[in-house]
Write a structure and sequence with these properties.
The complex is a heterodimer of chains A (228) and B (432). By secondary structure, chain A is an alpha+beta fold. Helices cover 41% and strands 8% of the residues of chain A. In chain A, α6 packs across α7. The chains are: A alpha+beta (228), B alpha/beta (432).
Chain lengths: 228, 432
């Protein structure tokens, strides 16, 4: 092992691709995240029992894309078939709309309300209750830093400030290049790997202040490969 | 074995395959004995399954510790209405991360547990409500459910038994209160996740107004083992009233944070110092929260007790969901309590005045104390607010918010007073 490689191992011992400290195990990032097992999830949602649980692509982010037609329409039909009451499809439908449009505008919420036969005001009430539904456009990457107690004890607030400084926007604002928004969130459920940062649908674990530039670099490089 | 550190004193019942990617697949799970319990239970009567779970003494692993067999026996025999089994995978209690590990390493354990549980309570449909942030774990569980359907282990005519059992994975959208049983039911129904008044209890009118039972992920993962080995087998570990093993999540200022599975009644001090490596060199433990942020805080001297429901209750705290948060002597207790109360204020659904107003008010006072503008009367105000919150609301979020406040003021009063005095000195210097 060269001098540089051993230095890198020292800084981030056995932390493959920000999937967290692996301790006594010898695992790759793909093995930890289970990406091989999960594979490429189909756009029509797969089996009806799980059609409501696709990743949160922030894919098209286009206000004109029809919400529930084609494959997305198929997914919603599958979701509706799993509950005895149409109203129960509201959370999955809002997730779907969020995925297509990038956030929930009043118009989007009204379209969901109409499709499900629920009063628009009720949909507003539900959308504002849950923290994951963004009611304003966000950056392409929503960086959610946990600062609750376990991560707080291990420097979570420093990680938050590092992200804020390096993207050059305040908490909740979109960065100038439109790529990043940083927010502070509550416990993400991976407390043994402080600090936990969720970026869109992916967890980054054991994030230290020194890891922040590398994460932002990686995301910027990825964004360059995605369609605008 | 637990993840990411193993220890020889562990009993690896649920965590045997953590860190083993091969155990995720249906084939890999079956090669390790999976789905034999489902086959066996479909040949048993529902009453017999409930009796095995009762005989095991298994208590709910989501924090309340209610005997699971007793809960299942509350379901009515026949009402003509559909029954539902709900799996609470909305793991949002600060400090808790065991369900995520169970779901991402052993998803089939959960699927099998849900299918057996659904059969036992005469439910045709099991909903797994998973928190929205757990996309990665949800995708793994989704794949596992699809594999189960493809193999005929879920859906119509499960394993040729003539019984229909459906499983649906439902994603939440970011709300701690949806981990409360009736809050979860409201959220599943597409409403704001506001808890309901009980009675009526879930077994009478739960999800969609139908008889429902709700269980934690870890609880359901134990069930296949009880079917395979009989309920009494589970009693070989633990104490008389807290049987079996438990996954404990350790976080904070320890050298080896992670999940560990030990028998109930394991010595807490040995657990933290030996198994988890204790605090960093040169530091001492100031405070420990044994069961997630909703339980009273313990000082570093009170740790020589067993990790079970009774011993923790006798020590003035609670086992809760077994999420151990360790704080060493560099910790600012007031800051951490403030952060916890901020969390509860944020997550309060807002229905009940004592919780909605109390958590917000307590958070404001704590921020003021932390910033150096507190006074001694604030401590009494905080105790009064806590007294007006605990036990006076529809759900126990307000009790959970009151626990860190009252326990930290009782046990770490000097920390508060130091900040208050420092503030008073600074104010005096400013006025002079």
């Amino acid at each position: 092992m060269s001098n540089d490689e051993s230095k890198v191992r020292e800084i981030r011992p056995r932390n493959p691709g920000f999937a967290g400290i692996v301790g006594e195990f010898d695992l790759t990032e793909a093995q930890i995240r289970g990406t091989d097992y999960v594979g490429q999830r189909p756009r029509h949602g797969g089996h009806a029992s799980v059609a409501g649980t696709m990743p949160y692509h922030v894919a098209t982010r286009d206000a004109s894309v029809p919400l529930f037609e084609g494959e997305y329409g198929e997914r919603l039909e599958k979701v509706l078939s799993r509950y005895e009451d149409k109203q129960a499809a509201l959370l999955p439908a809002l997730h779907l709309a969020h995925e297509i449009r990038g956030y929930l505008s009043p118009d989007t919420m009204d379209q969901v309300a109409e499709r499900l036969g629920i009063p628009p005001a009720y949909v507003r009430g539900v959308a504002t209750f849950y923290t994951m539904y963004n009611l304003q456009p966000m950056g392409r990457y929503l960086i959610q830093v946990c600062t609750n107690i376990s991560c707080n004890l291990c420097g979570g607030e420093d990680v938050l400030h590092a992200f804020v400084e390096q993207i050059g926007a305040e908490v909740g604002e979109v960065s100038a290049n439109g790529l990043f928004t940083v927010i502070e969130v509550e416990c993400l459920g991976a407390c043994g790997f402080p600090t936990v940062v969720q970026i869109n649908e992916r967890f980054f674990e054991n994030v230290k202040v020194d890891d922040v530039p590398a994460i932002l670099e990686r995301l910027t490089a990825e964004a360059a490969l995605l369609p605008a | 074995m637990a993840y990411p550190y193993r220890h020889p004193s562990e009993v690896r019942l649920l965590s045997e395959h953590f860190g083993n990617p091969e155990a995720r697949t249906l084939k890999g799970w079956e090669a390790r004995g999976g789905y034999t319990a489902l086959r066996k239970s479909l040949g048993m009567s529902r009453g017999d399954i409930v009796n095995e779970v009762k005989a095991s003494g298994l208590r709910g692993r989501g924090g309340a510790g209610f005997p699971t067999g007793v809960k299942w026996s509350f379901m009515p025999a026949y009402t003509g209405k559909p029954h539902y089994l709900l799996c609470n995978a909305d793991e949002s209690e600060p400090g808790t991360f065991k369900d995520r590990e169970l779901m991402r390493w052993t998803p089939h354990a959960l699927v099998e547990g849900c299918l057996i549980g659904a059969y036992a309570i005469n439910a045709g449909h099991a909903y797994i409500y998973i928190r929205g942030e757990f996309f990665e774990a949800a995708q793994i569980v989704a794949r596992a459910i699809e594999e189960a359907y493809a193999a005929g282990y879920a859906g119509k005519n499960v394993m040729g038994s003539g019984i229909d059992l459906d499983v649906t994975l439902h994603l939440g959208a970011g709300a701690y209160i949806c981990g409360e049983e009736t809050g979860l039911m409201n959220s599943l129904e597409g409403r704001r996740g506001e808890p309901r008044v009980k009675p009526p209890f879930p077994a009478v009118a739960g999800a969609f107004g139908k008889p429902s039972t709700i269980n934690n992920v870890e609880t359901l993962c134990v069930v296949p083992h009880l079917i395979n080995n009989g309920g009494a087998w589970y009693k070989q570990w633990g104490t008389e009233k807290s049987t079996g093993t438990k996954l404990f999540c350790v976080s904070g200022h320890v050298q080896r944070p992670g999940n560990y599975e030990v028998p109930m009644g394991f010595n807490f001090k040995e657990f933290i110092y030996d198994m988890c490596g204790g605090p960093a060199p040169g530091r001492t433990i100031k405070a420990v929260i044994p069961g997630g942020s909703s339980v009273p805080i313990m000082t570093g001297d009170e740790l020589d007790i067993g990790m079970d429901y009774e011993a923790m209750a006798a020590a003035g705290t609670m086992l809760g969901c077994g999420s151990v948060i360790v704080m060493d002597d560099t910790t600012d207790i007031v800051k951490q309590v403030r952060r916890m109360v901020d969390f509860y204020a944020h997550e309060s659904c807002g229905q009940c005045t004592p919780c909605r107003e109390g958590t917000a008010w307590a958070a404001k006072i704590l921020r003021r104390i932390e910033a150096g503008w507190g006074n001694e009367a604030d401590l009494q105000t905080l105790m009064d607010i806590s007294d007006n919150m605990a036990g006076k609301t529809i759900c126990v979020l307000s009790d959970a918010a009151a626990a860190p406040i009252t326990s930290s003021i009782q046990k770490f009063r000097e920390d508060y007073l130091a900040l208050i005095r420092r503030g008073e000195n600074l104010a005096a210097a400013r006025i002079a």
